Amino acid sequence: MSADNTTTQIDSGFLKTLAVLYVEDDDEIRELLSRFLRRWIGTLHTATNGQEGSAAFLEHKPDVVVTDIKMPVMDGLEMAAAIKSSAHEVPIIVITAYSERDYFIRAIEIGVDQYVTKPVNTDILLHAIYKSASHRLHQQELEKAEKLLIDSLEQTIVVLSRAIEMRDPYTDGHQKRVALLATAVAKEMGLPDGTINGIRLGSMVHDVGKIRVPSEVLSCPRKLTRTEMDFIKTHPDSGYEILKDATFPWPVARMVIEHHERLDGTGYPKGLKGEEICIEARIIAVADVVEAMTSFRPYRPALGIEAAIAEIRKGRSTIYDPRVVDCCIRALERAELKFWT
After folding, report:
1. Do residues 179 and 165 make contact, with C-beta atoms less than 8 angstroms apart?
2. Could you read off the pLDDT of 246-255 as tens digits, one per residue?
């Protein structure tokens, strides 16, 4: 081992808050390096091979893992792969005397964070630990801040949904059921969790523009006149005007203005076609039709789930996205999904 004087640049107080797992099969090297690290690190756990290291990681949940590569039972890269598969954010620092190309390719594929060569320069190793842990802490702080922001934005949408409920309980119930089905469809499609959450929230306010429509029109017990229907058809634009200046991590305003668009361009308000319509709106469009047909309306009784499925099958690939339709039908066929009851 060798050392230099660069440890003076390190925040020793921060290092004392860390727990580090050090895995090395050579008893002498492990003892010498452990003795050095304990002077700087708050808690040091050691193991003699990758198998022991994997068990120690699960038991102690260290902040950083430092490991040799070539070890008996399980090598350091096998252990690193196992750790990264369940805790990809934990920094792993590899110590190696091997310059073979295959080791480094494996390490890159696994996602190893840093490398320190043998003979180990203790200050370089300490800096690698400090840098890796600092970066992870910074990422955690960013993730916490992002979560707080997203939670705040979600609450904004929930509050807006409650405002709709106070004015028109029917519209609110419709939006909640559409949100339930649209979320199920998005999951069936295998979309990312963030996208699914955005679809859930966008669905909850997709008819927010109906705030501008008189309640006597919304609850009219007869078939609406053309003038009344034209007025109702302004609600996507009105909803967009309400939401367009809000900064969400999801395209909520687009979902609102595009949920009545159709693949063949016969929808409104812009007559968009195909993939000009965002996928979120294409999902909400199908869920919206199904919910409307399976629910009571002032001017007609509920038409039933079979009629709703027949309707979206009829419009599959022409006015409705075919993948969305197929996934919606699969979601509806799941016995646990009882959104229409």
Report:
1. no
2. 888 899 999 9
